[in-house]
Design brief:
Blueprint: H1 4-13, H2 21-40, E1 51-55, E2 61-63, H3 64-80, E3 85-88, E4 95-96, H4 100-103, E5 107-115, E6 126-134, H5 144-148, E7 155-163, E8 167-173, E9 176-183, E10 188-193, E11 204-206, H6 217-227, E12 238-239, H7 245-255, E13 257-261, H8 274-287, E14 291-293, E15 313-316
Parallel strand pairs: 3-5, 11-12, 11-13
Antiparallel strand pairs: 1-2, 3-4, 5-6, 6-7, 7-8, 8-9, 9-10, 13-15, 14-15
Helix pairs in contact: 1-2, 2-3
The structure holds 2,5-anhydro-1,6-di-O-phosphono-D-mannitol and magnesium ion.
Length: about 325
């Protein structure tokens, strides 16, 4: 039984020059996840369900739990002193931690504190997604653009937490993808999935079909072909779409499948955010042996221009990808 804390410390020993900051940062994310989990588990009993009343930087209605999760991350990461700042789906601007120790940290983090927030009020899966990059400016001079606006392929680590029938934290470094399940009795994340590899194909096809008539002909054909009953091939494909990208991609990592959120006539770049949704999920999926593109190009090669920019996303088992 290896805990998340023990495992990150063990990993540290593999690198003689490591300072322990990445391990510390991953443990801080784990702590924030436990605090959010504690709220989620009694969501129907305390006053945290429903809309908060404001509209976020994305123009979307903010749920109370979105705000709570964001505040938990801001507090935990600031006091962990293992990152120099954070970008969040819920904050318009970059948050730089300006105390001396944080500002000397090697890493910055980009987060969607609560993914799938439309699922909260109906007690369905929700998640957290995070991306960690190494800052490139000198210590004490953290820069909003240089440090945070880096290509996805520069990620040092990325992960997600799924608040599902159990709560899991999954993270990837270039070495592998590791999954930990929260034991609520002891309050520890224990390693449950030591090496996650995505099957090369699978049964799951995750797409919000209501957009079928607004997507371009190429993607329409991709969807049509997937569901054509061909003996011995895709006859048993299931349409799965939970409204929580983290949950759908998690299922595909376990069983094989594809998730797509394409661009459409009214939203050519789709909905999902590059920096803290698509990049981290693409990094994890690639390390697990899968693929992630915007329909043409690799997600991890996109040069970002804005912290909150969107991109179409096709992600999952290699043999199921759009060509
Ligand atoms: P959120 O981060 O505001 O919750 O939005 C992201 C979510 C994804 O988890 C999910 O796949 C998608 O939005 C659902 O959107 P749609 O209703 O357009 O299919
Ligand atoms: Mg999201």
């Amino acid at each position: 039984m290896i805990t998340l804390d023990e495992f990150t410390i063990q990993q540290l020993r593999l690198y003689p020059h490591a300072t322990g900051e990445l391990s510390g940062l991953l443990r801080a994310v784990g702590l924030a996840g436990k605090l959010i989990n504690a709220k989620v588990r009694k969501a129907g009993l305390i006053d945290i369900l429903g809309r908060q009343g404001s509209i976020n930087v994305q123009g979307e209605s903010v749920q109370k739990l979105d705000v709570i999760a964001n505040e938990i991350f801001m507090k935990v990461l600031r006091s962990s002193i293992n990152c120099a700042g954070m970008v969040s789906e819920e904050n318009e601007d970059v948050l730089i931690f300006d105390d001396q120790l944080s500002n000397a940290s090697k890493y910055v983090i980009l987060i969607d504190p609560l993914d799938g927030s439309g699922n909260i009020s109906v007690n369905m899966d929700i998640g957290t997604v995070f991306s960690i990059v190494k800052r490139i400016t000198a210590k004490g001079t953290c820069s909003q653009t240089k440090d945070f606006l880096q290509d996805g392929k520069k990620q040092i680590a990325a992960g997600y937490i799924i608040y599902g029938s159990s709560t899991m934290l999954v993270y990837a470094t270039r070495r592998g993808v590791y999954g930990f399940t929260l034991d609520v009795e002891t309050g520890e994340f224990y390693m449950s999935h030591p090496s996650i590899k995505i099957p090369d194909t699978g049964k799951n096809f995750c797409f919000d079909y209501r957009y079928y008539y607004a997507i371009d002909d190429r993607v329409k054909k991709f969807v049509d072909d997937a569901f054509k009953t061909r003996k011995g091939t895709n006859a048993d494909l299931s349409l799965r779409y939970s409204g929580c990208m983290v949950a759908d991609i998690h299922r595909n990592l376990m069983e094989g499948g594809i998730f797509l959120y394409p661009g459409r006539k009214d939203k050519p770049d789709g909905k999902l955010r590059l920096m803290y949704e698509c990049n981290p999920m693409a990094f994890i999926t690639e390390v697990a042996g899968g693929a992630a593109t915007d329909g043409h190009n690799r997600i991890l090669d996109i040069h970002p221009k804005d912290f909150h920019q969107r991109t179409p996303l096709f992600i999952g088992s290699k043999s199921m990808m759009i060509q």
